[in-house]
Amino acid sequence: MEKRAFFSSKILPYALLLPQLAITVIFFYLPASQAVWQSFLLEDAFGLSSEFVGFENYRLLFQQPEYYRAMVTTLVFSSSVAILSLSCALLLATQADKQLRGGEGYKTLLIWPYAVAPAIAGVLWIFMFHPTLGTLSRPIKAMGIDWSPMLNAKHAMILLVLSATWKQISYNFLFFLAGLQAIPKSVIEAAAIDGSGPVRRFWTIVFPLLSPTTFFLIVVNIVYVFFDTFGIIDAVTGGGPAGQTTTLVYKVYADGRLGGDLGGSAAQSVILMIIVIALTAVQFRYVERKVQY
Amino acid sequence: MVENRRYRNLLAYLVLTVGVVIVAFPVYLAILASTFDAATIINGNMPLVPGDQAAENYYRTIFVGASRTSREPVGLMMMNSFIMAIGIAVGKIVISILSAFAVVYFRFPLRMTAFWVIFITLMLPVEVRIYPTYKIVADLGLLDTYTGLILPLIASATGTLLFRQFFMTIPDELLEASKIDGAGPFRFFKDTLLPLSLTTIAALFVIQFIYGWNQYLWPLLITTKSSMQTIVIGIKKMITTQDALTEWQIAMTTAVLAMVPPVLVVVFMQRLFVKGLVETEK
Fold it and tell me: How much is the ipTM here?
């Protein structure tokens, strides 16, 4: 797409682009390329000297059992949050899509958790499920479960998944609702006249028509769980107990900040960059397809 | 539709109400906790109706701060969060509307290169290049400054793409008409483009304000002085693993205060919020 009418000026367009390009180069390209360069260097513990070691950092990384554990943790965490929040949001969106009185009000009451910071969401859930003073941990303990998210890795993970899901439902709900409202009502009515019931109509007509939205949301949710849940993890578990809720992103932070292993941390960043680029590329291809619909 | 509508609507109300209750419950507990004294919360039998300590808790949290862990008044943290969120929103809007204007309304060498250089930044969130970015900010002497909190987070293409998309829908005739009127680029931008873009600007502002207010990792890394702390970081420091040190009533009061501005923005600007969200994610 091009404009037929335009201005011609030699300097002005560059001046207009300058602020954005300067910030992008200084705070995006420079650090991204330094991360790549650093991942090939081995620095001594005091940061006084460094030598080029090629793929040594990567080789060391893939020898660490902790790295594989972080991978598995990330996988478990992101798939649980994606499945749970997508299915809850889809259920709520299909109900909100019915022409109900007060439907707008319900919509408002469901979307505001989007605005809550992930770390604050984490803090709310710690309070609710705190082993000694949490309002909801009393019924759990009454059932005979020794609930202790600070010591038990499974409990810690459950708490993380619940708080991350709680925050993500509103986002998925909005996109599902928009997707549902874009489906022509005549298609569904035609199926109703043909005699198929509501459940069957949903699975044979509505759900397939929603699949582009669902696919988009799966990608976005994975990226969300990868990066935006840093605050939740740091607030709720700090990656513990014993590193068992450390995800890939949290490990970059923990190794670089607390462990002082800059090369290893940079190598992890580079791997993450590749993962994000791959996910984004998938998403763009999908967006292109949607345009042709 | 054909089936028994009343039964289906009843079911819908039921599901939605359960959803709303689940979504609201954690926040309700936080609001409750902000109205009790420490002892009531610590003994684990907090009633489910509000207590009478609200005024005392909010006053202490905003103006004095917690006494044992984080000693900064939360009012100051909120101000820092405000400056950061507004700085990110305004900064992003300014640099992106200017660059989109250049890319769409001018012809110049390297135009598409410039566009792609900006476009590629969509791919990487700040979290993956965190240490090198930290180092650059440190080298520039921007640790513990508002500039350091703001600039690195506005280096992305979302705004530029949004404005570019919007400018593309503006008919060419408008530019031709203002050219006939003798308008130069500045006047066209100020008198035609800017007024037409107001809704898009507002939608982007809403989304970026929430994004900025909710930042966690970046302010955690680059602010060391407690006077520069944002509220989202501040609250985490109030919750310690040693239970005896956590003043839960102050922490929950802070959580409520940290939620109020972004939630109000979403509730009162719902239409703009949805527009901003849907369009920036495209």
Answer: 0.90
